[in-house]
Write a structure and sequence with these properties.
By secondary structure, the protein is of the alpha+beta class. The protein has a domain at about 25-95. The protein contains three helices and three strands; from the N terminus they run H-E-H-E-E-H. It has helices at about 1-20, 45-50, 80-95; strands at about 40-45, 60-65, 70-75. It has a three-stranded mixed beta sheet with strand order 1-3-2. The chain is globular, with a radius of gyration of 18 Å. The protein starts with a helix and ends in a 9-residue tail after the last helix.
Amino acid sequence: MKIRKIILSALTGLLLTSSALAQAPQPPERFRHYRGPVVIKMLSQEQIGRVCPHIPGIIVRACTYKGNPCRIYVSTTSWASTASIISHEKGHCAGWSANHEM
């Protein structure tokens, strides 16, 4: 019975940690209110590698191309929640630079 409890506790912890995705860093308030048109495309990591700029030493999981509409590309295998990534990328649509100034 004790081993069963330990296994159940371990499985519960694993499920909780795997479902709780990290949050992408969010832009400063002044860049959080983009209201222009946006096109969002979910792509495989391989496609992201072809569409997004390469940054040495970093695995790029999303990118934004400002324009009309602003185009956001997000990897389907991201480390963070899709909603937080889209919010982050919309900050770039609103003018937040790639330097992520605060």
